[in-house]
Each structure stands twice: as C-alpha cells, then as structure tokens.
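Notes, p. 3: input format for complexes.
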Amino acid sequence: MHIIEIFEESVDVLKNNKLRTALSILGIIIGIGSVIALMTLGQASQASVKKQIQSLGTNLLTVRPGAQSSGFIRMSSGDSKNLKNEDIDAIKNSNRFTTISQVGAEYSSRSQVSYERNNINVSVSGITPEIFSLRNVQLEFGREFTQEDMGSKNKVAILGPTTAEDLFGTGVNPIGQTIRINGGTYTVIGVTKAKGSSGPFSQDEIVYLPLETAQKVLFGVSHVSTIYISAKSEDVMDAARNQLGYFLLEQHGLKSPEEADFSISSQEDILQTITQVTQTFTALLTGIAAISLLVGGIGIMNIMLVTVTERTTEIGLRKALGAKRKSIIYQFLIEAIILTFIGGLIGVCIGLGASFILTKSMSLPLVFSAPSIILAVVVAATIGIIFGWYPAWKASKLQPIEALRYE
Amino acid sequence: MIEVKKICKSYQNGDNVTQVLFDISFKIEKGEYVAIIGPSGSGKSTLMHILGALDVPTSGEYILNGKNIEKLNDDALSDIRNSEIGFIFQSYNLLPRMTALRNVMIPMAYAGVPKSKRILRAKEYLDIVGLSDKYNNLPNQLSGGQKQRVAIARALSMEPSILLADEPTGNLPTSQSNEIIQLFEELNKKGHTIIIITHNDEIAKRANRVLNLVDGKIISDKKNQ
Ligand SMILES: Nc1ncnc2c1ncn2[C@@H]1O[C@H](COP(=O)(O)OP(=O)(O)OP(=O)(O)O)[C@@H](O)[C@H]1O
Ligand SMILES: [Mg+2]
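Output follows (632 residues plus magnesium ion):
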C-alpha cells in the first residue's frame, strides 16, 4: 500500500480518537514547550547581558578591588577599600601611559531616594565626569557634571530615565527639582537617555552624583568601587592592561602581580564569564525539560501499545488480506510519528508563547532561533520513531489467525 | 491445484495438547466446487484456515498451485493470501470504520493496484454482489446478508483462482442464503475453484463434491452426480 494512503488512514484513525490523541501528545507538548521556552529564555538573557556590556564599548578596562582570580570575575564590589581617589589622580597625572585615552571612577551603592511621596530604592553612583563618555551615557535633558561640581562637592544629581519617571511621573521635566537622598537634598540637573536595559546592570535605573559628593557627603567613604579606563584602540588593550597593572602595583607598594589587591578585566572577560554562567544554567534547565520529553516519548509508546492491542483483529484481518509486515510497521509507526510531530508543533507554539510572555515581563529582548525550533520538531518526530517502533514491530509479528481470534 | 498430504494439527495449551486434525489427505482440482460438512468442533474451520494459508499445520504437507506452503515466509504468505486465495469468513470481518467500498478496496491496496482502478473494480464487484446502492455504507449500516456480500466482493476483488468460504450463509435467512449460493455457482461456472463449509445439506447437495469431516478425520469423500 502506498505510504501516502497509510498516512491518510492514520490521520483518520487519530481524528476518530480526538480525546485520546490529545491526551497522548500532552507529554510531548509539555516537553517540547518547556525546552523551547527555556532555550529562548537563556538566549534572551544572554543577549541582554551581552548588549549591555557591549554598549559600554570594547576598549573599556575595568579595575575593581580584590584579588585577581583567573576565570571568575568578582561581581560584588565594595568589600575591599583599596582603590582610592589617589590612584585615579596618579593615573591621570602620570605620563607613562601611552595606550590610555580616558580614566574615570565610580563609587556606587544603593540608597533610598525620594521626591515628595515617591520613595524608591535605587543604585546611587558617584562618578567622575569621564564616566559618561566612557560608558556611552548621553543626556536627554540638562547638563553634565562640571569640574566645579566635582571640586566643591555640589549636591547635584543626574537621573536615569526610569528613575526620573519613577520619581516624577511620565512626561515631567525634573530639571531644577529637588530630590532627597538619605535625608540630604540634591538638585536634579540632568536626565540621561534610555539605554533600554533593566536588572542589576541597568543604566536607566540609577542616580548619578559627583564622585566626591557621593563619597564624602552621602556615604562617608574614601574609596571607589570601580575605575574605568579606555584604551586608545582595541589593539592596545593588552598593553594597556599591563601598563595599568604594573602602575597600580607600584602605586600600592606591591612587587609581583600575584600580590595584586585589584583585578583588571575587559568587557570581553566579563562577557565570557557571564555567557558561561548563563549557558550552564540554560543547559541544566533544558536538560531537565528534556527528561519530560523522554517521559512524553514513553507515553507515546504506551498509547501505541494499547492501540496495537485494541486493533489486534484489524491487524489480523489486514494480514489475512495480504498486508506485509512492512505495511503494518509503517501503519503504526506513521501514527506515532504524526502524534509526536503534532505534539512537537503545538509544543513549539506554546513554548514560543511562553517565551514571549516571560521575556516581555522581564523586559528581555526576544530572540527566536529558527534552527532550535526546527530541531525541536525533528526531535519530537524522532521520538515518535524510537518509541513507536516497538509497538509497530510487535503488531507486524502477529499471526493472522491468532489475531483474528483475539477477543 | 490444492494438495494436502497427511496434515495434522494440534493445539497446545500449557501441558495440554489437543489434536484437532488427523492425517488429512486430499486433492482438489481447478474448477471444483467442494462442500465440507461435519459436526461442530470436528475441525472444519481449522482445516479451512490451513487451506487459506492463514495457519500452518503441525505436520504434513500443503501444496498450493505448486508451492509448498510451509517453506514460505511471512511476506510470501501474505502475497498468496492476497492474490491466489479469496477467504470469506464466517463472521464477515469487515473493518467497522470503513465504508463498504473501502473495505472491498483493501486487498487491492496491498497488491499495489492504483487507487482509481481500485475504486472502479471495487464498485464493479459490489455491483456483482448486488450492492450498487451501498458503496458508502459503513458495516453497521448494512444487514448481515449485505455484510457477507461485501466480504464476498472483497474476496473476489483480486480475482483469486480459489475461493474459500467458512459457513458463508450460517447467519443468514434462507432467501439471502440462496442468493449467495447462486452467486457461488455462477463464479464456479466462470472457473473459480470453490470450497465451502456448511451445515446445510441443501447447500452441500448443490456442490460437485462433499467432504465429510468427523473428529478431525475425513470419513467420506463423495462426488455428487
Ligand atoms: N486455539 C485453539 N486452542 C485449542 N483448541 C482449539 C483452538 N482452536 C480450535 N480448537 C479446537 O479445535 C476443534 C475444532 O475447531 P474448529 O473451529 O475447526 O471446529 P469447526 O468444525 O469449525 O466447528 P463449527 O462447526 O462449530 O465452526 C474444536 O474442538 C476446538 O475446541
Ligand atoms: Mg467453524
């Protein structure tokens, strides 16, 4: 019998058993759906982190306090206090640096910020004026910090757009208004342009103050959490890193790089680490989802075995009328493949729907990868072949007279 | 044409071995019309299943159109059942979710007959058995006699040289039974070999030859004049 006709008959059979068909593919739907959702979610968060880090520029070196450790970069800051304002001044004033174009520093911590009744907990970042150009931050309204703001520890603030909106509401120009941070009052002089990101790295949910205002007036500290340095070009990154490293060692009175009480990382390093971490998580979660796919496959095998038993007389009759073993195998195998294929398709749709909702609610960029979707459907159909094979083979072995006698 | 030599058949259920057929031997030539009679449980159906290549004897030889059946594999047996034998079951054995037409088309589908030709031929044979108005009826929309006639059309559709019928009229009222027997007689005149199991003496009398099976042995083999 022609394969297309076997296919048509299988479709008929499945249509006649709609409820059973639906229930039997549920496992596959859930399995494929969760694999797709988790993969897209993993890719989305990776893309989001990548975008944020790359938006800082590829020439950027970051110096943080704490010992250098290979592979893993410390993401927490502030536990060590050995990067000082003097370090920055020394770097700026040294004429040894041939590879560095700009130097800036930041001290950041979280604090309560309020305007009238609105009260939010947000990252407050004391910065030197170079930070804006180092980190590609631009102003939407107002002006940047001046040397005068820096020197006199002026109580002025520049807000990230999300923070401006949280405090003042949509469409209100907050320039000239006064906000309260930890009891002190600060005048808003600018709002930055949206960079379109959220989470711990967000540059939209932030309050910028002049570095010394934040250090001395607000938080009462004398160290910085990060020093940012831009190399003159991507090619001299390694040279810049070395120059900077040895300079800071000397500055801190240390002899060898092993004693370093700071770590220097490029955006590339950070990106790699984060990519590694998200990839591991994604793989782990996808692995768990894949187990549910396996369970779905076993469900298909179970239902196919029931179908074969139920249709024993039919199989006997077909063999009595001339069906060869291959025809019988195809008949049941195709049924299993159709089941898992449909399950796979529905699973993909549900998975994509779920990823859409999840990425939307976490404001992550949605990246659909066509290959992984096609792969998922192929995997589903393959599961049909693997788990449908045994029942189909069993059916084809039935002897006509025994099968016809079966009650 | 058909030759069985010393066929025995026994069934084993656990330690229990029941022998059903004992040393059965006979020959049936092409174009014969044979009735097999005998009391219930005497092994008629068992014998018929062996003749139809649906079952294998425990011992003995069965030669069908020159081929030794026990030497053939599963698929070769399927081919023989498909093209050389038309088997009419006592209980019709139609597929319940298929229309009369599609039921008749099944053997042709396995033989690889193109679909358009299959439909034409299925209609032709449904016409022959008098069901030209029932092509699209499902089995549960047909009477017993009509179902049996669909089964006959199906058995005829591959134009097999041998037609085996296991009590084809057992469940039918006399009028319908007569129609079917008349159909067999016509087919026999056209050259088909026909073997029919029956409990009905009238039907047996109309055959050319009667085999009487009692307790798994042939006790008489008579030609009707
Ligand atoms: N699978 C089986 N296992 C054991 N015994 C069987 C099996 N099939 C048939 N028999 C026995 O074989 C004997 C012959 O059965 P068979 O069906 O051939 O009888 P029959 O002559 O066709 O009877 P009837 O006229 O009632 O149809 C019976 O005694 C039956 O119990
Ligand atoms: Mg019988």
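Chain B is about 35% helix and 30% strand.
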